[in-house]
Fold this sequence. Notes:
This protein is an alpha+beta fold and 619 residues long. 48% of the residues lie in helices and 15% in strands. It folds into 4 domains: 2-98, Gyrase A, domain 2 (2-Layer Sandwich); 114-293, no CATH class; 322-453, no CATH class; 465-617, Glucose Permease (Domain IIA), CATH 2.70.70.
Amino acid sequence: MADQKQLAKKIIEGVGGESNVNSLYHCMTRLRFKLKDGSKFNKSEIEQLDGVVSALESNGQYQVVIGNNVKAVHDAIMDLYDINSASSSSNTNNEKTKNPVAKLFNIMSGIITPIVPTLAGSGMLKALLVILTTYFGLSEESSTYLILSAAANAVFYFFPLALAVSAAKVYGVNIFVSLAIMGALLEPKFTGLMTEVGDIVDFAGLPIVLMGYSGQIIPAILAIWLYSYLEKFLNKVIPQVIQMFAVPMLALLIMVPLTAGLIGPFGVYVGNGIASGIDFMSSTSGMLTGAIIGAGWTFLVMFGIHWGIVPAMLQNLSTTGYDTIRPPVANATFAQAGVAFGVFLKAKDKKLKSLAISSMMPAILAGVTEPIVYGLSVRLKRPMIAAVIGGTIGGGFAGAMNTTVMAYVFPALTTLPAFMTDTFAYYVISIIIAFVLTTILTYVFGFDEGLSDKGKGETKQDSSIEGGRSTVASPMTGDIVSLDKVNDPAFSTGAMGKGVAIIPTDGKVYAPVSGKVTTLFHTKHAIGLTSNDQTEVLIHVGLDTVKLDGKHFEAYVKQDDNVEQGQLLLEFDLEAIKAEGYDVTTPIIITNSNDYTDVIETDKGSVTKEDVLLSTVSL
């Protein structure tokens, strides 16, 4: 947890500090900030943090992509800082976003995201019931089946209530009044008025067209949106002394008939129209529809606008019992998994191989692709082209075969049961096509492995790189001493890493690489840098010089500064340190030596800051 708290602190610094955060929530892989001043969002600084995949601004939202560990980081932030959860804050960010489309996507994201885990869990339970009844003889008349079916269907049956609660949080209105507004449309006496859809009843002389609202999406969102304006108006005009009962009473008196008579039927017709439109597209040109979704879904997710399509999927499920959008989406997911596997097979660098295989597992097991998208596809570029081709062909096949899913789930191997409809075989073939084709194309297209070390805020390499070798320059002028001759076991045994030592002839320390100052001790006797190609270098001036507590040392940089090779970092009074009895032998260590096949030291007896001191060798 300590590591998460350190990362949390760095992220909050990168977004402009606690006072700059209006609210925060997280989805499956991202922290999503609403900031008061977006200009304080330091993208390059945040992207340099270990544990951060990427940072981006989309639709007025500031996002930090973490990956599977996002909840732990989110919880650490909420423990450390007095920051509002976006789910309990008013929609100030949406008000500042002038683009109406962006506002709509932000609203949909805020409303749908909190419900998604329950939808996914219920969907998988429904899929499990299909397996149990089809292959294991569970009777649909048994009490076991009925109880499990109730658990699986509850969130879908009462979906308007869940949406009312979530929408109330987004719009910043009374949750329980919102719940009562939509609850009235599911109340038995109201539903008992209808013998069949479209029946008309009288309300104070006005006709009410009766609809079934179980499983509907749009009526709840529209009703609570309108109620948000009504509540603000009522709070303004009603004396505070009677607001406690008068506002809820008038809200129910106005909103329930209005929703039942106008908003509800309109929302049902719109929702059914969307479902019919998608069904028409699938039946008219399923291949084209699937190909577009398979090719473009990753880009929609990158910009955070996929939430505008999620309600259409949910509407399909509630209206028809199946959805045809999610299967092509799955092909985009498995295409990204193919990128990771292709990079793993092709890459020679051990760190890149490790990143590829570790990011592939969340994709194929949980449907989480952001670590691949930002860690591999975007940075290496050509693999993204491979993923688009694989997603297009796989998605086109899924669409052409009218492949369906019975529940809202994240596409992954673990969620295969949700796709076990009569098109299951076609679904499996489609994701195999997407995965295998993308893997092959990623391998064939290739990529520049040097690019994988960029994107953490730097744009240039710190040392010359030829094949699998990079070099580290000498940070000072002096005579070379083998590391095993250093009179300090922490260095001489290699416990700190491989390297060499220098007995300096002057008191200046220069940057041996271009990169970032990752550690600067307050005593200024030691400094750590991480190069642009992720070589970690420690320079420790003298032995036991920490006891000087900074005396005789002067620093010209500070921690987190970006530096160029050859830049002056430190000065120290060489003669004064010797006079106080300290050994000035200076170890220069590659602290991440285990990431390399070998670390080779110079064969020179003495060096200047212009000379190559160490070379790291990768496979």
